[in-house]
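Q: Fold this one first, please.
A: Sequence and structure below.
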Amino acid sequence: MTAAPVNPAVLAAAPANGDLVQTVDWAAIAPPVIAAAVALAVLVADLFLPKARKEVLAWVSVAGLAAALLALAPLRSGDRSTFCLVQEPGVCSYTADHFALAVQVLVLGGALLTALLSVTETREELPAGEFWFLLLASTAGAALLPASRDLATLVVALEVASLPAFALVGLRRGDRMSGEAALKFFLSSVTATAVTLLGVSFVYAATGTLHLTEIARQLDDVPAQLGTLAEAGVALTLVGFAFKTAAAPFHFWVPDTYVGAPLPVAAYLSVVGKAVGFTGLVLVTVVAFPSYADVWGPALAVLAALTMTVGNAAALRQVSTRARSAVRLLAWSSVGQAGYLLVPIAAAAYSSDIQIGATVSYALMYAVVNLGAFAVAALVARTHPANRIADYRGLYATRPLAALALAFFLLCLAGLPPGVIGLFAKVVVFAAAVDAGLGWLAVVMAVNVVVALYYYLRWTAVLFRAPDGATEVPGTARPRTEGARATAPALRLRAPAPVAAAVALTAVAALLLSGYPQWVLRFAATSLF
C-alpha cells in the first residue's frame, strides 16, 4: 500500500498547533546527538565489560567527544536551522548560528580536555561506566543549549546539562566532602531551576509564545494589564540564570562544590558549567528581552561589579597552607572572572553597537587557560593529594615544563604579558563598558584587575622559589636531607600520558592565541546573531 502524496498547499496552511510535517537537519543537530548517543553506548557497554577492560570506555568517550567536535566543521557557515514552525519557517527551536557554534566549540573542547584529565581518575578512583555516561550526558545538554531558540528547549537543555553534574560532583564514594558538595550544588541548582520556570511561565502568560524571537516581538506591545507580569517574568528568569552563572550573591555553592568534587569535574564545572549559564543569560536578555533592557541592563551591571569584587576579595584571603587551597583559589578566581564575563552583556543594554561577541571571546580565552591550570593541578595532585598552594613551591625544579605552563596560564588570567590573549580579552571587555557609557563599571573592573594581580603573581612566584629544605644562595647545592631523599622519587613520578596531553594541548592553544589573538578577538567585532 502506497502513501498518498502530500499537497504542499495543505502543509503551508497547516495550523501551528496541528500536525507538523517537516524534515530534520541531522547535520545541524549532530554535535549534541553524537554526545548523547555515545553516552548511551557507554552505559550499555559498561554492563558487559569486565573490570580489567573498563578503560576502553574512557577512550570511546574521548573519541565520541572528538567526533562531536569535528561535526561542527560542516556548520561553520552558521546558517542552519531546524525544528521550525510550518506556518513561520523563520521561527525555529534549534539554530546553529555563529554564536551557537562558538559556544559549542568551547563546550565540546572543554569536555574533551576534561575527559583526558579523567582517564586516570576513572582507572584509580571513580566508577568508569557511571562517570563517562554522566559526563557525556551533561555535555550533550550543554551543546544543545546555545542552539536553543525557545524557552522550553532552553530549560530542558539547561537541566540535561545540570542534573548529571550533581552526580558527578558526588561520585567519589565514601567521601563526606564530596557528598556535601553535591548536596549544596543540587539544592542551589534546584532553587535556580524553580525560579527560572516561574519566570518562564510568567513570560509565556504575558506573550503567549515560547520562541525567543517571538517573545521579543510580543514584549514590544504588551497590554498594560500584563506589564507587571512580564516584568516579573523577566526579573525571575534573570535571577535563575544568575544562580547558574555563579554571579554574586548567588555564588555561595561554588567554593565548596569545586573543593569537594573530583578535580576533573571541578575543571568541567568551571568552564563548561559556566558557559551553560552565560549562554542562557545571553539568549534570554539579548534575543528574547531586548525591550526590557532598562530592567536587566542595570541589574547585570551591578551583578558584574559585585561578582568580580567578591570573587577577587575572597581569593586574596586564601591561605597557601590550607588543604586544597589551590582548588579553592581557582574557584574564587572563577567567580571573579564571571564578573568580567557579565560586563559586555550588561553593556549591550545601553548601546546597540556593543557586540555580545566580547563575552564569547573572553569565555574562549578563559576556557583554555583555566582548563590548563586545572590540568597542572591534577598533575601536582598525584604527588601532593592535599593540593595546597604551598605544594607548588619549587615546581620548576622538579617539573619545569609544568611550572612554565602554569605560570603562563596564571599570567593569562591576570592579563599580563606574555599572556597576550588574556590582556587583549580584558581590554575588549573594558572597552565594551566604556563604549556603553558605564564608566563606573570600567573603574570597578580596573580596580579588580589590579587586585587580582596580587594572588595570581603570588602563586606564580611560588613556582620558582627554591624547594623546601634547599638553600637559596646561588651556586650552592641543595642539602640532601632524609626528608628530601624520601620525597624526591615521588616528585619525579612520570606524568600520566592523558594528563600530560591535556597540559600540552592547553599550553599550545594558549600560546597560539597569544600569538594570533585575532582568532578569538574577531568575535568581539562580529555580530553573532
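Q: Good. Now the second chain.
A: Here it is, same layout.
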Amino acid sequence: MSPWSLARSVLAPRLRGVVGGALLGALATACGAGLLSLAAWLLATAAQHPSVTALSVAVVLTRALGVGRGVARYAERLVGHDAALRALSDMRGRVYARLAATEPVRRFRSGELVARLVGDTDSVQDLVVRGVLPVVAAGVAGSGAVLLATALYVPGGALLAAGLLLAGVAVPALAAALSRRPAERAGVARDRLATALVDLLDGGPELLAHGATGRAVDAVAHADAELTRTARRDAALLGLGAGSGALVAGLTLAGTLLLGVAAVDAGALGAVPLAVLVLTALAAFEIVAPLPAAAARLAAVRAGLARLVPVLDAAPAVVHRDPGPGPLPRRGDLQVRGLTAAWPGPGPDGRGRTVLHGVDLDVGRGEVVALVGASGSGKSTLAAVLFRFLDPRAGSVRLDGHDLALRPPDEVRAVVSGVPADPHVFDSTVRENLRLAAPDADDAHLTDVLRRVGLAGLALDDEVGAHGARLSGGMRRRLALARALLVDPAVLVLDEPTAHLDPDTRDAVLDDLLAAAAGRAVLVITHDPAVLPRADRVYTLRDKRVRLPSGAACGPREPRPYSAPNVR
C-alpha cells in the first residue's frame, strides 16, 4: 500500500464532505477576490463623478459579497472540518483495529509506535484542512480571476495565468520536493525523541541504579536537538517558498501594470478596466499565497502516512474467522497435535523461523500439567498459540474436539485464559483491574474471587499504583489470576507463576493458584523445580518438540505423583 492509496481509502467515504468544504472554501475565496475587484471598479468609476444611481448596484453587490464571504467561510469550516475529523476518526479506528488484530506492537519500539499512533495518525486531519481544501479553493478561484482578467484584456489575462502557474504550481511543487526529505527526517527524529523519553521514564530506577541517567538524558537532548534542526530547515524552506511566491507576484503585477498602461495609451483599454485588472491580479496572488505552505504540509502528511503503512500492512499473526457452530465448552480436555508455529518475520517466504515443530501435548479436565524447557525453547510461543495471539502453521489445538484455530480469537480467549510471566497491573483500583475481565461483575462477585486467590485483605477501592507498585510480586500474580478466573475459563495457562518469589510466598501462591483453578485444565509453564511435584504430568520442550518422561503415555490419564528422576 502506498501513502497516497492509504489517503484515498481514508478520504473516499468522506468525499462528499471534502468536496463540499472545498467548494465552499472556493466560494469564500472568490467572494474575497470579487470584493477587491469590485472595489477597484467602484473607486475608479466614482472618480469620474457618475450619478449615485449608477453606483447603487455596486454598493449592494459589495455588501452581498461581504456577507457571502463570511457565510461561505463559516460553512466551509463547518463542512470541511467535519469531514476532516471524521476521516481522522476512521484512520484511528483502522490503526487501533490493526494493532488489536495483528499484534504489530511486538515489531516496533514503544516510543516509535506512540509517535506513529499520535502524530502520524493526526496528520490525516491536515491532509484535508491544510492540504486539499486550500488547493481546490485556489484552483477554482484562481481560474475565475484569470477568466475575468482575460475578459478585460487578453494579454493581461495571459500574463496573470503564467504568473499564477509559477506561484501556484511551480513554487509549491518545488517546496514539496524540497520538503520531502526534511519531513522524513522529522518523522525519524520524532521517533527517536519519543523512544528516548519512554526509555528514560520507564527505565528510571534501573538508570539510577547503574548511574546511566546522564547518558539517557543526553540521548533525549540529542534527539530533541536533531528534531529542532529539522524544524528549522523546514521553516527555512517555507520561507523560501513564500519569498519565491512574493517575487513572482511582484513581477507579474508590475508586468500587468505596464501592459495595462501601454494599452490605455493605445486606446485599447479604459482606465476603469485597468484598475479592475490590476487589483484582480493582486487578489489572485493572495489566493495562491498559501499553496507553498500547503505543498510542504502535504509532503509532511505523505511522510506520516508512509510511516503508518508498515503498521497497517503488518502481516496478521491471527486469522479472524466467523463464530463456529455452537459455543465452545466451558470445561473440557485440551489436545495439541502436530503443532508447528513460527512468528511472522524474516525467513523463507517471509514466514519467519520455526519455533515449534510437531508438538503433541494433552491437558485433561481437572489435570495440572507442567511444561519445562530452556529459555528460548518455545514455551511462550506455545502459550501464544493457545491464547490465539498466533496461528499454527500446521497441526491443531482442540478443546473437546473443537478446533480453536477455526474460532474467533475473542471466543477462544473466553475459554482459554491465564497469567503471563509478568502480569500488567493498571494504575487504578483493584475493582477496575478486575473489571477488565468482567465489566458487569458486581462487588460481591469481585470480593469472592479475591478471597479464592488469597487476596481477602485487599479492598476493592485500594489503589495499586503504577505497574502495581503498591503490590508485592505475589499479589500481582494473584490479582492476575483473579482476572483470569473471572472469565471462568476451561483452560488456564500459568506462565512462570512463581518467578522471583521467595520459597514461602511461592508455596502459598501455588497453593492458592491450584486451589482456585480446580476443575479446569491447567498448564503450568515453569523453570521452578518446586512446581513439578504438584503436576500430574510433566512435558519437556527441547529441539522444537515436546518430550514426555520415559515410559509416560501421551494423553489424559489419572493423576499420579511426579517423580523427579524421570524428567529429562
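Q: Anything worth noting on the second one?
A: Residues 34 and 313 are 48 Å apart (CA to CA).
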